What does this fold into?
Amino acid sequence: MGFRVLKPGMQTTIQDLGRYGYQSQGISVSGAMDVRSFKIANLLLDNPENEAELEICLIGPTLKFTSATIIAITGGDFSPTINGKPAPLYTAIYVEKDDVLKFASARTGSRCYVAFSSYLDVPVVMGSRSTNMKSKTGGYHGRPLREDDYVGFRIKRRYLPFFLSRHLEPQKFDETAETLRVVMGPQTDMFTRQGLDTFLSGEFTVTSDFDRMGCRLDGPFVSTKNGSDIISDGIAFGAVQVPSHGKPIIMLSDRQTTGGYAKIATVASVDIPKLVQRKTDHKIRFEAITVEEAQALYLKEITELEELRKSIHVPCKEVLDCRLVAKRLTKLFV
Amino acid sequence: MQQVQILTEGDSSLLIVFGDEISPEINSRISAVVQLLKNQHIKGVIDLIPSYAALLINYNPQVISFSEIRSRVETILSMDVKAENRAKTIVEIPVLYGGDYGPDLQTIADHAGLSPEEVIKIHASRDYLIYMLGFLPGFCYLGGLDERIHTPRLASPRLRIREGSVGIGGNATGIYPMDSPGGWQLMGMTPVKTFDPNREVPILLEAGQYIRFIPIDEEEFQRIRTLVEKGEYECVVHHDSDKEDA
It folds into this structure.
């Protein structure tokens, strides 16, 4: 009861919303990079918000199911197919035993998520199923999936209420410059006036140094008053460090817990998905907002996700429309 | 006491900066604030990351807003107990010095112009404050290494340093909690696992505690290692009674 990995893809890992409570001991949070797409995949299947999923990066895997289950694929478009036929995104899909789910490389975005109605059977380590590759714990033996790995399911759950309603409009990830909203600080006072202006007005490029730990940017020089070294302190998800070379680094899910470079700003939680779905050479800009504005955006997104959850938790319109059902039945029998 | 600053680090974290230097006083004040925060069980606080001179609080803005958490923190900072009143916890870490376990002990001794025995005596003769953990799971940044045995790092780092290795890198000393590449001069090894993800308490040590290295011989090393593997070993812990809370 589970799936076998026929091809592993570039870096396919098991993630949930992360491992909190152990950062004071040097253990990174890990967890999904694009939290929004992650949450939508789970809500499509009526799963708990934090249920573990596959996170797929740039080149997707090929998986063969050893039992039936229901899946949902969200995030970037990796042209997924089931037994060679295109599989819809942002939709609950029934898969049978022996079905082959195949992903190509990312056509849009750079990461996609797969949720399972029968829940992935990997142990909870320190409160989370997320893969922590550095300390080789959590997820599937603390590492990305490899060829011939077998990941089991925890439960048999092959029925979902309102199955036919469980689809949403896929999110678009395009290649035009994205503006990331940031809350300035905590070490803003270490930067020159010009450095701050450059940061908020310049256009930056995503480099190939972009992984689960962080994203290095190229662009205009962001100058500090007196170097960038601080006494090491804690690093939040989305914090923008600027080392003395003047190029920002945005710290992501597998970031180290503490660091010694000044942080000019932190990306608003709701805008981190926009960043992590970028590819090398894509452009980004920064725009400052207040912490109150960033928190209001966060609350708005939670409300929006709750509305999405409700919108698919209703009988399918076609089923309610008697004439439509009658027409379809006629078609079937005539 | 320096002016404490409360700063934003995005919409889900707040950074309290206690000072701009590395000192046991500032570090011990941070430990006291961490304890107070833990005791208060503030709803919405999801993690605390203490460091040399600052404390990062991760919180969920759906549960508690920035202004709410800032005012809770201000209250705690105003009631912060005097650091001197807190108990000092010392954890004993047994170490087998030299031989295959500490291949660079002679290098450290030569650099210091001392005998290996003197180096061991100096290293094991004081308690080291754990300022913070980071870099690797369970890796402790320790303060207070005796200047006489400061030793430059290896010119070319080793690709694999075994878990439990105890070493010196410049003016710092510490324990490798897991196999890792590294450039420190290795002087010994502890049979104790400071990090074990499958243990009920995965990380043995915490910031604000002290470490005392206890020299042991091969026989004792093997005895402790067997107990560790069975999950039956517990480190000796002292609580400095003079500094117990009133």
Remarks:
- The first strand of chain B starts at residue 5 and ends at 8.
